[in-house]
Design brief:
Strand order of the largest sheet: 1-4-2-3
CATH architecture: 2-Layer Sandwich
Number of helices: 5
Distance between the termini: 13 Å
Strand content: 5-15%
Order of helices and strands: HEHEHEHEH
Largest sheet: 4 strands, mixed
Keywords: Ribonucleoprotein, Ribosomal protein
Organism: Lacticaseibacillus rhamnosus (strain LMS2-1)
Pfam family, one: Ribosomal_L7Ae
Protein name: Ribosomal protein L7Ae
GO cellular component, one term: ribosome
Length: 99
Amino acid sequence: MQKQAVLNLLGLARRASRLTTGDQLVLSAIRSGEAKLVFVASDASANTRKKFSDKSSYYQVPLVTMFSKMDLSQAIGSDRAMIAVTDAGFAKKMQELLT
């Protein structure tokens, strides 16, 4: 139930233009401090998961890996394996739902 609520919030954040998607754009959002929460698909490649895990921990951005690529893609309406939430309010609510 909580997981579905997070996916619904991702869709809402997408419509509000509060997401950054795609490999390079998410990395630059993490580096610039723009990313408040990062989602990486659980079925993304091991190298991709490691790269985003390392970047997220270095820049102290929370990372979520519990959703599959299909879950994330359906939530935002486009085929993506990594998503950065750039709005602090959305990120806070999603983290509350995940804990």
